[in-house]
Amino acid sequence: MLYIASIKGLQPKYAKRRTRELLKLVNLEKEADRKIRTFVYKRIGKDEEILVVLNPSGDEAVCHIPVQEAGEVIYENNGRASLKGGELRVPGASATFFSYRK
């Protein structure tokens, strides 16, 4: 969150205070210093939906998401993520884009 705040030009003191407030609001204070390993989000376009999976860390990451199976892989870089039964396995330093299925 602090990285995004810096990109948006927020003052560091304000960004840090506001980040702590927001983490407290959603009961994630204890996670404040944990490094994020995997980003997963859905891109919705006019004609398609894509599940984007990024792991900037050097280590494999495993997480559970509310999607049971992924569609076709339409892009991969430095390894392919796999999704089965909601368990997402993501190689380190990789990116995978799937066509999205609900």
From TrEMBL:
InterPro entries in the record: Glyco_hydro_b (IPR013780)
Protein name: Uncharacterized protein
Lineage, uppermost ranks: Bacteria, Bacillati, Bacillota, Clostridia, Lachnospirales
